[in-house]
């Protein structure tokens, strides 16, 4: 019984840590370690349109913690039901259901509210940048874009 309690506590702790992922990396105000102290290109422009979007974070190990943790907890709970072959079936069903619930929960935990900014640069080029929705943006607002390619953030003037 102590082993089961310890296992549940361990899995709950691991699942809690999954929710501690830092969603601020998607903010226009946060620089990664590799871009700090690096020269960045600055371009100026005007916001043409904005649209609320969602960033699905956690793509490095998609749903690994939620799926495994949910499967373990579901299997442990299922093993408390019935006896004999019924217990084995309940354990398997609990593990499958727990894995599905854990995977879905991790998906939701890893979502970040974001904004898609369409910007017309002063040179006439149109760009789209997606970043965390941590401030209000308005069409017609002047902005500066810092960086280039896959490493660009937008800041107000």
From TrEMBL:
Protein's membrane topology: Lipid-anchor
Keyword Electron transport among UniProt keywords: no
Intracellular or extracellular location(s): Cell outer membrane
One cellular component (GO) term of this entry: cell outer membrane
PROSITE patterns: PROKAR_LIPOPROTEIN
Keyword field: Lipoprotein, Membrane, Palmitate, Signal
Keyword Lipoprotein: yes
Main subcellular location: membrane
Protein name per the record: Uncharacterized protein
Gene source species: Zobellella denitrificans
